Each structure stands twice: as structure tokens, then as C-alpha cells.
Amino acid sequence: MISATPANADFSSDADFEDAQAQEEGVLELFLEPADCGQRLDKVLARHLPSYSRSRIQQWLEADLISVDGHGARARTTVLGDERVLVRPQADPETLAFQPEAMDLPIVHADAHIVVIDKPAGMVVHPGAGNWSGTLLNGLLHHFPALAKVPRAGIVHRLDKDTSGLMVVAMSLEAQTALVRQLQARTVRREYLALVWGSPPARGKIEGAIGRHPRDRVRMAVLELGRAKPALTHYEKLAESRLDGRAVSLVRCQLETGRTHQIRVHMQSLGFPLVGDALYGKQHLAQVFPRQALHAWKLGLIHPGNGSECAWRSDLPADFAALLDAAGMARPV
To answer: What is the pLDDT of residue 25?
Structure first.
């Protein structure tokens, strides 16, 4: 039953209040049957409400969006078969994930084929568990509504939430295909600046397959090639100094592949974790900087529309620049 509750309703009893609840817009009312007696509430509701999954109903129960005879209930509650149930359906966050949201986006370049964004630290790129809104994808759909017709809103590569810097987005399926092929061919030039603990060699190449950590599913790790995907990072040390009494080095990293957490994992595998990286570095050292000190500095590619070589550079964000100042390092040019 779906109806509206009067704004000036006067509830003189619990029964009156329950009746008013049942009349709220979008509230579903149902009465259980004798055949339901002795069964779990979530199973009974899943049968009575076939439009919704059992897991969704369980989430509503946990969020107190379902009442039984005017009281809260849990999935394991055993029903008697004559209860009155009120359900306030809520949309699945995943169904709302691909919605436009007004937000400021640092747009470096935009044309009919591509958009280049200078992503700030703290912004999630793509909706996912725990981040169904406020993502770069939501902002892109607001600024460029046509991206709703492009898979993943034109996103072809990602940056970690707390990594800042340049990203390219495709404005059409054709441009997206062209950029994906360039990424696969390793012709997209992606350079990062990272501040790491310690003093790595002047330059080097890190070739180590990256996959999900076998014991910690949040982390990635360098594994045997058969258990992970190939990954290749080139690095060069630009400067060395001290921070908080410890040696630190500014390194320029160039990616040939784009694995999850690639630079963070590769540098840590050599014994030089990123400053501020609470996931791959030492916890007490992570307090020096509130995020991993990693910035997507330069981006180069072949324009999918006209075939010209394009390149962009992003200035260091204020927090990263202040970190280098604290270490007495000159900012790269």
C-alpha cells in the first residue's frame, strides 16, 4: 500500500502512528500468513517481496528500515505468521552510482575527443564499495553529460584515492578504444613524482609481477609471474635529503604498465616505501605526511582525434610542495 501521510497528523496512539507510517509515500505494508510461522523473517520477506533480493532485505533490516508490529526486527527473527510488516525500500547504492553530481573538477584540457583532469588527492576515481558518490566519475557526468553513453564514463585508467595528478578521459567510444590500445601498447607516457624513505640507486628498472597479497586482501604484492600480472616501473633519483631525521629521496617514476598500487608496491619491494604510505610503509613513519607522497606529474599520448603528439604537466599540489620544502628539496622543473 502506497499513500501519503498528512503533514498535520495527530497521533493519539501507537496504532495511529503505525497507520500513518504505512501511509508514507513508498512504504510497503504486508501481513504475514499462517504458512510463514516458524520461518526466518528475511526468508519470508524475500518470498513476499520477489522484486528485492534477500541480501537487500537483510541490509534494510540492519538499517531499521523494516518494522514488525511497530518494532524493529532482525533477519534471524522467527515469525509467528500473523505480523504486520512495514518496509521502507531504499535504492541500492550501486544503482545510484552512475549519477551526475555537481563538483569542481580541475580540467586541464577538453575537446570533442578527450578530457584531461588534474585529480586532487582524496578523490575516488570510480564508484565502489564505501564510495558510491562524490567520485570523479560522478563529476564527469555532471560536466560532460554525453559521457553517460560511454562505458565507465570514458575512464581508461585510474589513480589511487590519495594520489594526485593527471588523468585522461575519453569523450567517445572511438576515443576510448584508441586510448586503451595505446595503454596496451605502452605508448602512453605516464611520469610520477614520489618521495620515498631511504636512498635508492641513481636509476633502475623494477620488473616484478603484481597481484593480490595472499594473506591481506587489501594489499597488493610482488609475486611469481604465474600468480600475478607483469609490471614494469623505471625510476630515477632526482634529489636526496633528510626529513624528520631520516634520509628521503625524490624519484621520478615512469610506468610501462598500470597495475594497482604499482609504484607503491614496487618501491616498497626494494626497501624504499613512499613517505606517508600507511598501507605499504611503516606505521610510525606514515604520520609525517597524511597520504602517500605520489603525484602523476606528466602525461603524454597520441591524440585519438588528429593523431598529434600531446603532453601535459601538472604542478605539484600545495601539500606535496610543502613536504619538499620541509625536506629542504628544490621543486623539480
So the answer is: 54
- Classify burial at 63, counting beta carbons within 10 Å of its beta carbon; exposed 0-12, middle 13-18, buried 19 or more: exposed
Average pLDDT for 137-142:
95
In this predicted structure, the answer to whether residue 7 has a pLDDT above a threshold of 50 is: no
The DSSP-derived string for 186-232 is T-SEEEEEEEEES---SEEEEE--EEE-SS-TTSEEE--GGGSB--E
Helix 54-62, helix 41-48: angle, nearest 10: 120
Lowest-confidence region among 35-44, 128-137, 321-330: 128-137
Give, in order, the Cα–Cα distances in Å from 174 to each of 65, 149, 154, 177, 178.
44, 12, 10, 5, 6
Catalytic residue among 42, 118, 160, 277: 160
Percent of the chain with pLDDT over 90: 74
Q: Is 111 among the residues known to form the active site?
A: no
**pTM metric for this prediction:** 0.74
Q: ∠ CA 141-128-157 to the nearest 5 degrees?
A: 65
Q: What is the C-alpha to C-alpha distance for residues 151 and 126, in angstroms, rounded to an integer?
A: 12
C-alpha pair distances (Å), 231 with each of 188, 224, 253? 15, 11, 13
Contact call for residues 39 and 78 (beta carbons, < 8 A)? yes
DSSP characters for 234-295?
A: EEEEEEEEEETTEEEEEEEEEESS--TTHHHHHHHHTT-PBTT-TTTS-TTTGGGSSS--EE
CA angle, residues 293, 124, 297, in degrees to nearest 5: 40
Query: Is 4 a residue whose pLDDT tops 60?
Result: no
Confidence of residue 311 (pLDDT cuts 50, 70, 90): very high
Distance CA 301, CA 191 (A): 12
Q: What is the pLDDT of residue 226?
A: 81
Interatomic CA distance for residues 124 and 126, integer angstroms: 6
